[in-house]
Amino acid sequence: MIRLNNIHKSYEMGSNSLHVLKGIDLTIEQGDFVSIMGSSGSGKSTLLNILGMLDNYDKGTYHLSGNLIANMSEKKAAKYRNDMVGFVFQSFNLISFKNAMENVALPLYYKGVPRKKRNLIAMEYLEKLGLKEWANHMPSEMSGGQKQRVAIARALISEPKIILADEPTGALDTATSYEVMEILKDINAAGITVIIVTHEHDIAAMTSQIIRLKDGRIHEIIRNGELKQFQKSYMKELETA
Amino acid sequence: MFDIDKWQEILATIKKNKMRTFLTGFSVAWGIFMLMILLGSGNGLSNGVAANFMNDAVNAMWIWQGETTIPYEGMKTGRPIQFRNQDQEIVQKVSGVGASSGRYFMGNTRYSYLKESGEYTTITCQPELREVENLILNEGRFINQIDILQNRKVVVIGADIKTALFKDSVALGEYVNINMVPFKVVGICTEPGSTRNRNAYMPLSTAQMIFNGSNRLHNLALTINASTLEESQAIEEQIRTALGKRHKFDPKDEGAIGLYNKLENYIQTMKIFQAIKIFIWIIGIGTLIAGIVGVSNIMLIVVKERTKEIGIRKAIGASPSSVIGLILLESIMITTIAGYIGLVLGTGLMEMINYFMMQSAGPATDQSETIFLNPTVDINIAIYSTLLLIIAGAIAGYIPAKRAASIKPIVALRDE
Asked: What distances in angstroms separate CA B123 from CA A204, B33, B397, one per listed residue?
């Protein structure tokens, strides 16, 4: 599904350049539920941006569903994003002057779906996420959890293969965070690859694979038995807290 | 392009920022409004002056006699030139001369009818004078060729003379005494562009015979067929040369004969108005450019404000061209609608001024001097202006739209 081979990325910061990713090799299969962890500056958001075709990489190869993603025109990148990827952000990034339904329907607008049809589909997704009554509310009238659910609905509406979530629970309290994670789990159960960036261990513990980044390299990948151990320790931590 | 969704997107943003949109639109509306008022006023002034020229034939020319001021062929200066009937024939032969009439001045002449009498100017002339001076006949006819040939004692009197001598009774066919000689009134006329109609017109041949004129003339009035300044000046020069040959004066001698070429003045005045028109366009377009820069400026701020929104749109699949379209169409829509309002208000105001001017001037417009007439903008200019507005909107929106398209979603979505 996703194959990264020796990905390098550096940012020009005035005269000196900042080498953020120093050779990432990574394979993520269809249907995986992956979290990317790491301290700030470890390159986790950069990695997610490259995965979501929001940013270019300098060296290496990135294959998405067998297609090499490199040096694409903006137009093509926009098309790929629209078809393959759904984004969920920490700060929700809903369009403030559109109501929930219009926000959810927006990706279909760029797909060229007629207005009536896309609003109908948007309503379906809102219903799935339990927000049917909130369809005509503006983002400013909703709570953080509701906003994030609208954002997830928007990410899902174009039926992507991957959901990329950048700190999806970063702005939410614990209870709401868990609700959102439950939703993401359900999505994953439906066969969609979900990749989230987080720095919260308890959130990471809910995924099936944890990729730890350190200084632009993959430090460790926790899965299977080790994951159980990881989950245990952090679940306990939660319970005591 | 015609995509309801796109327009709804644009309308939504405009609705959300009413004040900003209003201020943006106002600068453009004001620009167009001023342009229309300037153009309308310019047209009014130009039309008014052109109408004044029309009081006489635009291509009229008058020649009068003078004294030589340059020694010529051994003759000293100060020699008076006396026009004779032959001079008219000479002038008539010059190519480019249309109608011509010789005139013999009789000075003040006493007109009397029954108990009424008064002093009026008598202009003795040939039938062609009517064409030169654009005389309007209220009743009867003008002097004709048969009057000239038969030396008929007939006269065409100005409307004021008729009122003074005849009051309300019929003048046509009556005999009026001019310097004690009875003349039959054959016509009553008015002069365009004058409030005084105190001139009477008499056949030249009759006047010369009765009032001791011999074959002398004082003045020649004629029309010329020329469309450019150069042509009319060439005709003028030919006339000077022809008359100079006969009266033996230097064709360059400005004093020997006086010459007023109306066409030359007309063409020069119209050139001035052309220049004024160009000037008005420059000022108007300058005002408009200020408006466009205003729109462009505000659209840049709009793009800045909407950076995040545009980033979101791009992240969920908006192509650069759809982002450009969004900003460009908004800019075009604001400029076009606002500009159109300015256009309608501007032309409306000028039409209103025109309407009230017509009302207050009333039926006397033919008779009065005016320097302001029909101050309106014709429909072509309005159409061009509308096109100009759409282009202006596109230009105003282009740079901001380009900037919007180059927004990188990751930069836009970075959390502050």
From this structure: 114, 51, 69
